[in-house]
């Protein structure tokens, strides 16, 4: 009996020693290594949806800091991911990954979030800038809108350069006033990228309807229109995505070229005129500016 008790005590002592050794290994074990953020952009233009899938050798959990202002750290387990939305910014964001081991040792790494290259396709044969070699054949206003080429009165924001721009003045007397720009060469929408980039200045929030037209209009290609919102913050880059366009107004019951008025329509041909209406349907008076139509970064 004494031998049995002694044996049990010895086993307990050995067991305790092994547990102590195991605890020592946990405490003295290494911190995680090879920390990776594994950043994945889910779209190609801002705002960017980015998925973060942290990994590391020896980690059992991660703290993820997105780099977004006022965004707290988020704790995730292994093989878990997080998705954040990043706005367009002049400076890149930095993602911080804290890899945590079972012994609570932490390895921290920071990763720069580099946006993908802008996939801009040159739709305009001759982008319109109103500077040397980049003008238009002519431009005109209608229904109470007037246009004039002037020097950029507010070099800031999305258009910080001192250069020529198109001034648009509306008297507020016509609720469907607007402008037309006859280009030096055709805009070609045959590529998959249907986004026209331009700079527009306004100090009030307004919807702007942009259109591409032929001359004569609706000859072989249907007029296409897209409306976007300018926030009123001065010079902004607007991206006019004509893959979301609708067919322009004709007043014909059957439309034209087999496409009804205001029906969804994605242009794929060539156009020579670019048009805009500021807050169509409303009597809006004010001065606005337009520049860099069809210019890729």
Please outline the helices and strands.
Layout: H1 2-28, E1 33-36, E2 39-41, E3 48-52, E4 55-57, E5 61-65, E6 74-77, E7 82-86, E8 93-100, E9 106-113, E10 138-142, E11 145-151, E12 164-171, E13 178-188, E14 195-202, E15 206-213, E16 224-230, E17 234-241, E18 246-247, E19 270-278, E20 285-291
Antiparallel strand pairs: 1-4, 2-3, 3-7, 5-6, 5-8, 8-9, 10-13, 11-12, 12-20, 13-19, 14-17, 14-20, 15-16, 15-19, 16-18
Structure notes:
The protein has 1 helix and 20 strands. By secondary structure, it is mostly beta strands. It has 2 domains: 31-113, Immunoglobulin-like (Sandwich); 138-291, Jelly Rolls (Sandwich), CATH 2.60.120. The strands form 5 sheets. A 6-stranded antiparallel beta sheet has the order 10-13-19-15-16-18, with no helix packed on it. It has a 5-stranded antiparallel beta sheet with strand order 11-12-20-14-17, with no helix packed on it. Strand 2 and strand 3 (48-52) form a beta hairpin. The longest helix is centred in the N-terminal third of the chain and has 27 residues, at 2-28. The termini are far apart.
């Amino acid at each position: 009996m004494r031998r049995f008790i002694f044996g049990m005590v010895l086993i307990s002592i050995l067991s305790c020693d092994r547990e102590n050794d195991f605890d020592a290994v946990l405490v003295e074990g290494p911190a995680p290594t090879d920390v990776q953020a594994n950043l994945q952009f889910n779209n190609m233009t801002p705002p960017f949806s980015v998925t973060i899938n942290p990994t590391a050798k020896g980690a059992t959990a991660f703290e993820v800091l997105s780099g977004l202002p006022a965004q707290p750290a988020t704790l995730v387990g292994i093989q878990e991911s997080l998705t954040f939305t990043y706005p367009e910014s002049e400076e890149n964001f930095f993602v911080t990954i804290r890899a945590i081991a079972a012994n609570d040792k932490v390895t921290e790494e920071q990763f720069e979030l580099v946006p993908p290259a802008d996939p801009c396709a040159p739709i305009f044969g001759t982008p319109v800038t109103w500077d040397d070699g980049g003008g238009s054949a002519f431009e005109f206003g209608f229904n109470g809108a007037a246009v004039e080429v002037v020097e950029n009165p507010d070099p800031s924001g999305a258009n910080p350069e001192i250069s020529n721009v198109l001034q648009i003045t509306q008297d507020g007397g016509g609720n469907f006033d607007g402008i037309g720009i006859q280009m030096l060469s055709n805009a070609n929408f045959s590529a998959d990228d249907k986004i026209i980039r331009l700079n527009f200045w306004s100090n009030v929030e307004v919807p702007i309807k942009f259109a591409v037209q032929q001359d004569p209009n609706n000859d072989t290609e249907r007029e296409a229109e897209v409306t976007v919102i300018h926030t009123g913050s001065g010079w902004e880059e607007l991206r006019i995505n004509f893959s979301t366009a609708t067919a322009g107004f004709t007043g014909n019951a059957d439309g034209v070229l087999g496409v009804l008025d205001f029906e969804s329509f994605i242009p794929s041909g060539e156009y020579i005129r670019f048009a805009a209406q500021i807050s169509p349907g409303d009597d809006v008076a004010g001065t606005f500016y337009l520049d860099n139509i069809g210019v890729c970064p």
